[in-house]
Design goal:
245 residues; alpha/beta; Rossmann fold; 7-stranded mixed sheet; 4-stranded antiparallel sheet; 14 strands; 24% helix; binds S-adenosylmethionine
Length: 245
């Protein structure tokens, strides 16, 4: 163990011992090297903090995609913005400040979100307390992955309702494949998000009991009258900018 700046750090060998040899040392090294865990490389030896032990126990049960870099520094989001599931890091609030009303089901997630000049409100996206055609933009930044499959359409209809004509629904999310017989409980992504001012490293994961992809959300959008104006799909994530016509 090494003490650095008042914190205890453990080498991979020590972590392996502490976890009773349940996770291979190679696997732990990979977590550090791929930035899935914060670690420190000292004289070519990786060290992790005490708190990392819980994260390693989680990572062992998860498929975590990444580390993926996202550049939002030049993202165009117009007018008054409703951010669905805007707790967590509060990325859209951090990006667009006073333009944003961030709603989340959970007060704890909103309290955890970074402070900023945006409004945080406890509200269910299935039952928005806003008038029709009130927002220029609705966003969901890695929030739909947290929504039960049966709630997706209700949330899309609510987003549609509160959007002004020509308003945009902007979605970033994770492609979640079929679990099949893969023996992992969670599926998630570890990412770094660049805003104009800073870089935010975080991770989002869910219990792996659903699938989602670009095609599914394109169909859903079409069904309720949203047109895809722009999109980007890569191996693990998708971005969709819909327009209400
Ligand atoms: C972890 S956040 C996603 C990342 C977040 N947008 C950020 O900027 O870091 C997803 C949030 O969606 C919220 N959520 C799930 N279902 C919801 C619903 N029906 N209405 C509002 N929020 C919901 C969850 O409570 C969770 O905090």
């Amino acid at each position: 163990m090494k003490e650095i700046e008042g914190k205890n750090y453990y080498s991979i060998d020590e972590i392996y011992e502490k976890l009773n040899g349940n996770i291979q040392k190679e696997q732990i090294r990979e977590f550090f090297e791929n930035k899935k865990l914060p670690g420190r490389l000292i004289a070519n030896v990786w060290y992790g903090e005490e708190e990392s032990l819980e994260d390693i126990r989680f990572l062992e049960k998860a498929v975590m995609i990444g580390h993926i870099n996202f550049d939002l520094s030049e993202i165009n989001l117009k007018g008054r913005i409703l951010d669905i599931g805007g707790g967590g890091e509060g990325i859209i609030g951090q990006l667009k400040g006073a333009q944003v009303v961030a709603i989340d089901l959970r007060a704890s997630e909103l309290m955890e979100a970074a402070d900023g000049d945006y409004l945080k409100v406890i509200m269910d996206a299935k039952d928005l307390k806003f008038l029709n055609e009130y927002f220029d933009t609705v966003t969901a930044f890695f929030s739909l992955m947290y929504v039960p499959t049966s709630d997706r359409e209700i949330i899309f209809k609510e987003a549609y309702r509160v959007l002004k004509k020509r308003g945009e629904f902007v979605v970033w999310d994770l492609i979640i494949p079929e679990k099949g017989d893969i023996a992992k409980e969670y599926y998630g992504i570890s990412l770094s998000i660049a805003t104009a001012e800073k870089k935010i490293s975080t991770g989002y994961a869910i219990r792996w009991n659903k699938q989602q992809n670009y095609e599914l959300y394109t169909e859903l959008g079409k069904k309720i009258g949203l047109v895809v104006k722009d999109h980007h799909v890569d191996e693990n994530t998708f971005f969709i900018r819909y327009e209400k016509i």
